[in-house]
What we know:
It comes from Marinobacter subterrani. It is a single chain. Helix 1 packs antiparallel against helix 2 (about 35-55). The protein has helices at about 5-25, 35-55, 115-120, 135-140, 160-165, 205-215; strands at about 60, 70-80, 80-90, 95-100, 100-110, 125-135, 145-150, 170-175, 180, 185-195, 195-200. The chain contains six helices and eleven strands. It has two domains: about 5-55; about 65-215, no CATH class. The protein is elongated, with a radius of gyration of 22 Å. By secondary structure, the protein is an alpha+beta fold. A hairpin with a 4-residue loop joins strand 3 and strand 4 (about 95-100). The strands form two sheets. Strands 1, 5, 6, 7, 8 and 9 form a six-stranded antiparallel sheet that branches. Strands 4-3-2-10-11 form a five-stranded antiparallel sheet.
Amino acid sequence: MSYGFASILLAVTGGVLVIAGLLFFRHPRWLLGWLIGTAVFGVILAGLYALVIAKNLASYQSLEGIPTVATISTQRQTEQIWRVTLETEDGRVEERTLRGDQWQVDVRMSRFSGPLGWLGISPAYRLDSLSGRYTSLEQSRTAPQTEISLAPNSRLDLWQLDRQLHLPFVEGVSGKVAFMPMRDGATFKLRLSAAGLVAVPANDQARAAVQLWDQ
């Protein structure tokens, strides 16, 4: 099921459940006791939960059929200062300045089970942050650090809510690529699976940087 259709379906379902529950309470004579009232509260909560998930799906990407989620290129500006270009599969381009010798990308993933899994909603991901690191321990303690947020601002983030409240049918998972070396002209492909994030060298400069780093 596509994320667009899933978002619409969840939003409509959530809205209908909330409205139905509120209309029910407008007519007290319909109340058949505490049990029915409790059930209606459950309907409202289920509707609100569906609305929250629908809203969050709009800011995440589906893992289905997307082995490569982004491309990262590094250009040297001056000593240990780099211009990093990140281009996502949906065409979004971020150009940022990083300090250090290595880069890393963090990602947030959400997996779905129960009714959400029955809808065929595949695991979702969202790039969270881009950071730089120095190889020198002394510089790591004293030099300026760079960490850049890649996620949109959201008060209701599904991943964060699951970490805090242990939401039903949702599992929030953190993923990050191992720190990779920065080299002038190097390009890496970020590939994501349900197990995590992997950076794959995409040109000769990146392959040379990794080989030199491994020695």
